[in-house]
Design goal:
Order of helices and strands: EEEEEEHHHEEEHEHEHHHHHHHHHH
Shape: elongated
Number of domains: 3
Structural class: alpha/beta
Distance between the termini: 36 Å
Helix content: 40-55%
Largest sheet: 5 strands, mixed
Strand order of the largest sheet: 9-8-7-10-11
InterPro entries: Transpos_ISL3 (IPR047951), Transposase_DDE (IPR002560), Transposase_HTH (IPR032877), Transposase_Znf (IPR029261)
Strand content: 15-25%
Number of helices: 15
Protein name: ISL3 family transposase
Radius of gyration: 30 Å
Number of strands: 11
Pfam families: DDE_Tnp_ISL3, HTH_Tnp_ISL3, Zn_ribbon_ISL3
Organism: Hornefia butyriciproducens
């Protein structure tokens, strides 16, 4: 049981100062648990009356937000829990509250980026919020901060958002995957910036090409030979330094059976030299050599990759000169997937955005 020390209050209507009490009432207020037990405060609240205009109003209590039945400490506790990838329902259950009450606390969270970072990363993720399958995420990979979550990936939306900033000239680098539309848009918005393709995304092109060939080759083989392809996907993609003796024997059998797969594997291994380049100049020589060899391989899957690399060669080579990647954004996307899974989807974009921005502060 508690009661606040009496003090002067300003009338919310006319501003007059008063300490005159009109009446009292007892309010039950939830505080943080103590040793696992619920803590309920019996707060005896005063209702003051203004001697000038007659307005009646409750006394102001620093630790109790207006229209709330729990203390600021409970509020802060829920804020901390909302930083985890947990559902609103679970958080509400832990705090003996209703999910709508926790949702109201989420609605108090807001984040506004005042200026654009030196390094800007852009990507998309499948959020399925408010009728839009994909949302767009903008981040600062250098300082590990989310800049903004946009409700869709349309260029008009991105252009409108980025166009509002007065410090666009501060953006020196843009990191992205190999989505052609984003490159054109970023060149339009930041023509002075250096565009860098994330290493993971251009290496993945080779992984996909190799896998398509492996699947087709495995389909055409008889049962007699197909047994050699068991676990072949992992063996073909595994670092050669980590192959066991059994792995090497199986790899030799696979490459002996399939000529297209042998060529594809050799191209994949040769690209490891490109990845290991020490600087841009060395990477440029090795990449040019790889592109020529891929185009002469007779493998449609790798010929397609070679032309993609030609088209993106400058941005690929920039990744050997500057240390920025989309690794931070990929980490964000993984946490977003977890949040969606534990929440069984988040259809309201505004709440979805606030949760993501709040979680990424952690």
């Amino acid at each position: 049981h508690l009661r606040m020390q009496q003090r002067l209050h300003h009338c919310p209507k006319c501003g007059a100062v008063t300490s005159k009490v009109h009446d009292y009432r007892t309010q039950l207020v939830r505080d943080v648990s103590i040793s696992g037990y619920d803590t309920i405060l019996h707060l005896r609240k005063r209702r003051h009356v203004c001697p000038k205009c007659g307005k009646r109003f409750d006394e102001q209590i620093d630790f109790l937000p207006r229209y709330r039945q729990f203390t600021n400490r409970v509020n802060l506790q829920i804020f901390e829990q909302l930083k985890k990838c947990r559902s609103i329902k679970d958080i509400a259950t832990d705090n003996n509250m209703s999910p709508p009450t926790v949702a109201k606390i989420i609605n108090e969270i807001d984040f506004k980026t005042r200026k654009l970072p030196e390094v800007l990363a852009i990507d998309e993720f499948r959020g399925n919020a408010e009728g839009e399958r994909f949302q767009c995420i903008l981040a600062d990979p250098k300082n590990h901060k989310v800049v903004e979550i946009l409700p869709n990936r349309r260029h008009e939306m991105i252009r409108h958002y980025l166009g509002k900033f007065s410090n666009k000239r501060d953006v020196r680098f843009v990191v992205m995957d190999m989505t052609g539309g984003y490159r054109k848009l970023m060149k339009e918005l930041f023509p002075w910036a250096t565009i860098i393709v994330d290493k993971y995304h251009y290496v993945r092109q080779i992984t996909f090409a190799l896998e398509r060939i492996r699947v087709e080759e495995q389909k055409r083989l008889s049962d007699q030979w197909r047994k050699y392809f068991k676990r072949s996907k992992y063996i073909l993609l595994k670092d050669t330094r980590k192959l066991t003796m059994d792995d090497r024997i199986q790899l030799d059998n696979i490459l002996r059976i399939s000529e297209p797969l042998r060529k594809a594997y050799e191209l994949k291994q040769e690209f490891e030299l490109v990845k290991a380049s020490r600087d841009r100049e060395e990477a440029s020589r090795r990449l040019s050599r790889w592109i020529m060899r891929a185009q002469k391989s007779g493998l449609p899957e790798f010929i397609k990759v070679s032309f993609t690399y030609q088209n993106w060669s400058r941005e690929i080579l920039n990744s050997f000169e500057y240390p920025y990647t989309n690794g931070y954004i990929e980490g964000c996307n993984n946490r977003i997937k977890v949040l969606k899974r534990v929440s069984f989807g988040m259809p309201r974009f505004a709440r979805f955005r606030r949760r993501i921005m709040h979680i990424m502060l952690n």
